[in-house]
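Give me structure tokens for this 51-residue protein.
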Amino acid sequence: MSQERLIKLLCALCKKINYFTFKSKGNAKDKMEIAKFCRTCRKHTPHKEAK
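Here you go.
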């Protein structure tokens, strides 16, 4: 069985879900935050893990 789970990344500014990625269940306990390009804002913004 895989030790990864699918998570959603949402833009911190406009609150739109733009990306889906995998995250390790065992190693990463806190929420992920990555700077990625938001098509709605049309610039690089922080994207945080959503429920």
